[in-house]
Amino acid sequence: MIPLSEPTFGGNEAVYLEQCLVGGYVSSVGPFVDSFERQFAAWVGSHHAVACASGTAALHVALQIAGAAPGRLVAVSDFTFIASVNAVHYTGADLLLVDSEPRTWNMNTELLRDRVVRRAARGHRLPDLVEIVHVLGHPADIEPLLELRERFGIRIIEDAAESLGASWHDGRLAGTVGDLACFSFNGNKIITTGSGGMITTNDATYAARAKHLTTQAKVPASSYLHDEVGYNYRLSNLSAALGIAQLEQLADRIGRKRQIALRYAEQLEGLPLTLPPHATWANPTYWLYSVLLDEAAPENVVARLSSAKVEARRVWRPVHLQPPYATAERLLGSVAEAIHARGLSLPSSSHLTAEQQRRVSAELGSALAVQN
Ligand SMILES: *Cc1c(COP(=O)(O)O)cnc(C)c1O
């Protein structure tokens, strides 16, 4: 079976893990967490980074720090992995789901901006925050959100879980323009710590508060004084050791993902499908290479590929079609539905070989020929 997306271990993972074992630092104490945070911040170009137990935990805390709470309204992408909205739900804030735009599949930020301006003119409720998800390795069109922040003080949280290393053409990386940004190191992401996440921010106060909340809100140098309700969201030293080894390979991973994308673009030419988004102003990483099928039902193609020992997967069902969020307020949703109806993700592990990739493309060609 050629898997959809598997972790790649090709560097100092075993060396650093062994150092944890030998030193006895496997849990909440040890040198790797600080070091991972510093190196990560430097890599993405952010002043501060705070390691977390998962991407979801990172989002929960970042949202809370930015003011998400009962009575507040958070605008979020409708087309995303469920964790993006679950994290909002944990804070007790209300949701405003915003449809995708066809160019990048990301949140239609122009639609949101226009609606907010109109609502403001009428004195209607505005979002307090926007959580923008950079989906599948492609950065979102952020400019309209910068305008909203400027005019209405709407804070920006970036969910960059899938887009570590993706950038805009001016060189800024996804995860460096929001008030706070979150990353994930789950096993299927471009680098992994087993499970883990990171919050980045340029604001020292936010960073200190993120560290405080993720470590049970214990007042430093106190004997068990906790000044608010915190969380056990810290990353273990073991995971951080893995993270440092993975970070050393990140540039190479991104190069491989882009190479895979180039090869797919060549091999899939002429098939009845649309290649993944690539806006002129963006440098995507193609974290999970995903196409839109012209005619064929993705469900059937997934099944055919599976019997040919190739793992493919449909893209997310929009949040507004998920039972817990069916009644959430939303702006449109038909683009997200169309992407779900036609989208298909193909094997994209960074160690995918050229030979394997030829097989995937050939099997997809046969599957689509049968379909049509
Ligand atoms: C993976 C992911 C998350 C959650 O990360 P975990 O580390 O699995 O908790 C959040 N948002 C998006 C868009 C993701 O893909």
From TrEMBL:
Gene Ontology molecular-function annotations: pyridoxal phosphate binding; transaminase activity
Q: Under what name is this protein listed? A: dTDP-4-amino-4,6-dideoxygalactose transaminase
- Family of this protein: Belongs to the DegT/DnrJ/EryC1 family.
TM segments? none
Q: Name one GO biological process term.
A: polysaccharide biosynthetic process
Entry-linked Pfam families: DegT_DnrJ_EryC1 (PF01041)
The record ties this protein, via PANTHER family, to: BLR5990 PROTEIN, TRANSAMINASE
- At what positions is N6-(pyridoxal phosphate)lysine found? K189
| Keyword annotations from UniProtKB, A to Z | Pyridoxal phosphate
Recorded hits in SUPFAM superfamilies, A to Z, give: PLP-dependent transferases
